[in-house]
Structure formats: structure tokens, C-alpha cells
Amino acid sequence: MARVFIKGCEAIAEAAVRSGCRFFAGYPITPQNEIPEYLSRRLPEVGGVFVQGESEVASVNMVYGAAQTGTRAMTSSSSCGISLKSECISYMASARIPMVYVNVARGGPGIGSIQPAQQDYLQATKASGNGGFRMMVFAPSTVQEAVDMTYAAFDYAHRDRNPVLILTDGVVGSMMEPVELPPMRSEEEVKALKDSHRSWALVGHRRDEKRALILPGGWSGQEDRCKRNAEMYKTWDKDIQVEEYMIEDAEVVIAAYGISGRVSKSAVNLLRREGYKIGLIRPKTISPFPYDSFENLDYGKVKAILNVEMSIPAQFIYDVKMAVKDRAPITECLRAGGEIITRTAVINAAKELFNK
User: Fold this and answer.
1) Contact by Cβ (8 Å): 116, 107
2) What's the fold here for domain 242-355?
3) Do residues 305 and 328 make contact, with C-beta atoms less than 8 angstroms apart?
4) What are the protein's GO molecular function terms (predicted)?
5) Would the CATH topology of 3-202+213-238 be identical to that of 242-355?
6) Where do the structural domains in the chain lie, given as residue ranges?
7) pLDDT digits (tens, 9 = 90+) for 292-350
8) Is 3-202+213-238 a domain of CATH 3.40.50.970?
């Protein structure tokens, strides 16, 4: 594997190309602009297509069209731009069209700020569009994880014929780190991946071969489709990814994801050096959520949970509460609106719990 020093957004874009993505359509918005900028140069080098649409709505519908041919396709945006794309994402979930999209989240609500935030958690995991569909949602805390998750996301989307979301933020998207890039899929492999969709994709057919445009659901048979999708969602438990860090003897456990999880892990290391028994549960997949990690805690030892996230009011905490089931009190350490959580804030919040 090639080892490079690269910015988060550019690393995501390169991982997509290496996984076989050959179509991207998007629209500029901070802090994700480096993804389309990078792909505007990179995709033509591998025979792919880059389109800057006239809007977020136009761009995501172009992805719908490209993905319907079996081509690995992708879009990206930031927060309020993702809201504009949500209708088409719902359509693609209904039509069982595979696609990957990236949300490099910023502060909100509304246009908000261009600084990083984690205020899109509920949108990403509970309401990415109308109709109650679900998606696998990955939340990287490092540039390496962003690369690995993006590369794998196309395979999950391919397997399930369903949208997959990479939910990151402006910190991971903007930072530069050394990463190991995954292998580049050959032209033959990319073609084979597309050909494997021929049973449903629109790729040109003989006149005597009937093939209808794939539309999202329709007015009849929608309940049966929802039932089949529900059965598919149940199979995702095997794909849950989570980091459980120093929780064996922990008296306080931090719950955090993404960049907040990364900051919290650093805080755990410093607190451990001072003798505090503290650990961390950091979901890497936030949908499906690793409820079992909290279920398996020894609540005879664990006296408190510290929920850390860059959202006010807290959103991630709803899944944490559902997992903890009132077996330990949960307190919060929060920032929002583009204000980045600090290690000092996490350490001080943890020490307050121990002092109680």
C-alpha cells in the first residue's frame, strides 16, 4: 500500500477512486470543497466523470442516474447541503440504488457556521430522508479511518443496493495525516463490479428484452418492499464497528464518536497516568449502533457515563441512553456551532465525576 501525507477530504476522494468510484456530482460548500476539487482532476485520469451541478439537488439526482447504470457513484456536501440532497437519497433507498455520500459536517442549524460540528447525528442516523429507511453510517476519527471507511462503503452499498453515509466533520476533513492508501482496483475489476449489476441496471438492452426504468417504490407493493428492507437492516449487526478502550476496570466511561472520540481518547490516556480509572466507547458505525458495548459493561464498577459530543442540545446521547438503560447516570460535555471540544474540557468534566 502507498503511504502518503494527505488532507482528510482529499484522502476520502482518493479512497473513493481506488474503490472503483467513476462518477461524482456535487456543489461547492465549506468545509468539503477539497473533495470535488480533487475529484475534478482525479476522475478523468481513470476514465471517470466529474460534474459540478448547478445545485445540490441537481447533483444528487445526477448521481441517481449514474448509479442506476451500475456505476459506482458518489456525492458529498456539508450539513445544510446534505439537507437539500435528502429527498433524492430517500428515493434511492426506495429504488434500491447503491451510492455513497459524505457529509463533512459544519455548525448549524440553518446555514450556520463553516466550522466543524457534530450537529447532524440525528439526521444521519434517524432521519436522512422521509419514509423511515435506514443506512449504514460510518464516523471516522482519523484520516486513516476516513480512507478505510470510504473504501469499504462502496462495497457495502454494492452488497445491499442501498445508500451508505460517511459522517465526518471539518476537523477530520481539513487535517493532514500520514495514511496507508488501499490498493487501486484495476479497470477489469471496476468493469466486473459494474457488470455484476446487469440484472437490474440500465445499461442498454436488446429490443426484445423488456427493462423498465427503476422508480422508487410506486403506489402498490410499497409495504412488501419495506418489509424486505427491514429484513436487510437486521443483517447489519455483524458489520458493527466500535473501539472499546480501557473499559475493563473503568469507573467512568466516556461515550463519544468521530473527532470527539479522538479527543476523548487522548483525555483517557492522560487521566490514566494520574490514576483515574476511566475508559472510552467510541462507535465507528453509528448506524447500526453498538448497543452491546454498553450492555456488556460491568455496572457494578461503572459509576457514571460521560457523553462527549459537539452538539447542543446533545443528539448522540439518545442512543447512549437507550444503551445504558438507566444503569448509570449520564452527564454531558458539549460544544456546538463550530466550537471544537478540547481535551481540557473533557478532563475537567471527568474529574468532576470522580470528585463526586
Assistant:
1) yes
2) Rossmann fold (3.40.50)
3) yes
4) oxidoreductase activity
5) yes
6) 3-202+213-238, 242-355
7) 999 999 999 999 999 999 999 999 999 999 999 999 999 999 999 999 999 999 999 99
8) yes
**Chain mean position to CA 265:** 20
C-alpha to C-alpha distances, 246 to 257, 264, 278, 287, 289, nearest whole angstrom = 16, 12, 7, 23, 20
Chain centre distance of CA 199:
28
Helix (H, G, I), strand (E, B) or coil at 43: helix
Q: How far apart are alpha carbons 177 and 117 in whole angstroms?
A: 20
**Residues 138-180: tens digit of each pLDDT:** 999 999 999 999 999 999 999 999 999 999 999 999 999 999 9
Cα of first residue to Cα of last residue in the chain, in angstroms, is: 49
211-266 pLDDT, tens digit each: 555 555 555 677 888 899 999 999 999 999 999 999 999 999 999 999 999 999 99
Three-class SS of 135-181: CEEECCCCHHHHHHHHHHHHHHHHHHCCEEEEEEEHHHHHCEEEEEC
- In which residue are the cell numbers 456546538 written? 336
**How many residues would you count in the chain?**
356
What one-character DSSP code corresponds to residue 20? T
Provide the 3-class DSSP secondary structure of residue 75.
strand
- What does the pLDDT look like over 268-297, one tens digit per residue? 999 999 999 999 999 999 999 999 999 999
Rounded distance, CA 120 to CA 110, Å? 11
